[in-house]
């Protein structure tokens, strides 16, 4: 194998999976290496030139060149899923995606003028008392392991990183909604609205029905109304002693995809839990997500995994066996059943 592959593998501590094709392995290395280079570029820009000149466009143009150099150096031109794109356009799309994902995962962030803003402090998020997700300047000469776009370290090997607990519990979410949300009595007829009625485990999109007052019992429901260009306005509806109450959801719930959390909770309440399929190998799991996750859980999943089919595969993820318990516990908290195949 190319000596550069071995060097990158050693620096990032990314080993080849059992039975993995060389091309798939090198693509994983390029993906993770590009993210490391991106963060390194950002930190060097801040140190040398300051935040003002470190724009997203400037970093992206340099990242384009780095990715192109990696592809050429590792002889991967014939192993890319170009989909009729020029290689330059493909590389541009990859670098855009990496920047977007790093921002989504809170590895980097930008102000309203697309200038880079990032904390110099290295800190970590604790998971299951076993592994910690490290955020900050990439380091290559210690025991950190790079997974996808992120870096991990065993909890018992932490140095002086700031420790932040990152735990959520949704077991009592349904009752919390009933108790703590602001409900207003609604005396008018509700029209042109769809209601979420869990009945199909594999696809939330098929669980929306036209709202009919007479067809629902007492309880809390998620409803939506099309407002413009296929966008939805989500609200919660509560029926209690034949009286209807509504609770409006602000845009944050849609932006952070918290509407999907309601869908998982209501599915569990109806004993119609969502099922994800998972293939188990000796050193990794490949999880197929049949429905979207709330952004909180999506950040955890993406921090623990690589995309499977191509760089922007959001549904199929490769999770190394060492981090599988983090993903499995997170899915269990959402009441998602995992079917191993």
Overview of the molecule:
- The protein has helices spanning 3-12, 22-48, 56-73, 87-104, 173-180, 251-255, 259-269, 295-303, 324-333, and strands spanning 109-110, 116-117, 123-127, 131-135, 145-147, 150-154, 162-165, 184-185, 194-196, 208-210, 219-228, 231-240, 243-248, 275-280, 284-288, 306-307, 316-320, 337-340.
- It has 341 residues and is of the alpha+beta class.
- It has four domains: 3-117, no CATH class; 123-165, no CATH class; 173-269, no CATH class; 275-340, no CATH class.
- A six-stranded antiparallel β-sheet has the order 8-13-12-11-9-10. The protein has a five-stranded mixed β-sheet with strand order 5-6-4-3-7. A five-stranded mixed β-sheet has the order 16-17-15-14-18, covered by helices on one side.
- Helix 1 (3-12) packs across helix 2, helix 2 (22-48) packs across helix 4 (87-104) and helix 3 (56-73) crosses helix 4 (87-104).
- The longest helix is centred in the first third of the chain and has 27 residues, at 22-48.
Looking at this protein, list some descriptive labels:
341 residues, alpha+beta, 4 domains, five-stranded mixed β-sheet, 9 helices
Outline the secondary-structure elements.
Elements: H1 3-12, H2 22-48, H3 56-73, H4 87-104, E1 109-110, E2 116-117, E3 123-127, E4 131-135, E5 145-147, E6 150-154, E7 162-165, H5 173-180, E8 184-185, E9 194-196, E10 208-210, E11 219-228, E12 231-240, E13 243-248, H6 251-255, H7 259-269, E14 275-280, E15 284-288, H8 295-303, E16 306-307, E17 316-320, H9 324-333, E18 337-340
Parallel strand pairs: 3-7, 14-18
Antiparallel strand pairs: 1-2, 3-4, 4-6, 5-6, 8-13, 9-10, 9-11, 11-12, 12-13, 14-15, 15-17, 16-17
Helix pairs in contact: 1-2, 2-3, 2-4, 3-4
């Amino acid at each position: 194998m190319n000596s550069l592959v071995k060097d990158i593998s050693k620096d990032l501590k990314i080993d080849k999976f059992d039975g993995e094709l060389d091309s798939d392995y090198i693509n994983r290395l390029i993906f993770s290496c590009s993210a490391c280079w991106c963060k390194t570029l950002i930190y060097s820009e801040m140190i040398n030139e300051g935040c003002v000149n470190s724009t997203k466009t400037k970093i992206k143009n340099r990242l384009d060149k780095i990715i192109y150099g990696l592809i050429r150096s590792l002889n991967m031109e014939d192993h890319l899923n170009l989909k009729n794109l020029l290689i330059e356009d493909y590389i541009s799309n990859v670098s855009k995606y990496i920047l977007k994902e790093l921002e989504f995962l809170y590895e980097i962030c930008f102000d309203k003028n697309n200038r880079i803003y990032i904390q110099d402090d290295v800190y970590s998020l604790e998971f299951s008392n076993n592994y910690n997700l490290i955020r900050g300047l990439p380091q290559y000469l210690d025991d950190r392991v790079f997974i996808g776009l992120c870096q991990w370290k065993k909890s018992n090997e932490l140095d002086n990183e700031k420790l932040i607990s990152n735990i959520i519990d949704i077991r009592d979410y349904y009752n919390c909604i009933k108790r703590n949300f602001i409900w207003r009595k609604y005396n008018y007829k509700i029209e042109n609205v769809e209601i979420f009625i869990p009945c199909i485990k594999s696809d939330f999109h098929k669980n929306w029905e036209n709202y009919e007052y007479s067809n629902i019992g007492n309880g809390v429901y998620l409803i939506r109304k099309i407002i413009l260009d296929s966008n939805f306005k989500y609200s919660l509806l509560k029926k209690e002693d034949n009286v209807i109450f509504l609770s409006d959801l602000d845009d944050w719930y849609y932006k952070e995809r918290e509407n999907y959390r309601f869908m998982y909770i209501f599915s569990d309440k109806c004993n119609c839990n969502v099922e994800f399929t998972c293939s188990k190998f000796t050193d990794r799991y490949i999880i197929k997500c049949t429905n979207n996750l709330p952004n909180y859980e999506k950040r955890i999943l993406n921090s623990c995994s690589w995309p499977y089919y191509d760089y922007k595969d959001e549904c199929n993820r490769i999770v190394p066996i060492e981090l599988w318990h983090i993903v499995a516990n997170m899915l269990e908290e959402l009441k998602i059943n995992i079917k191993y195949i």
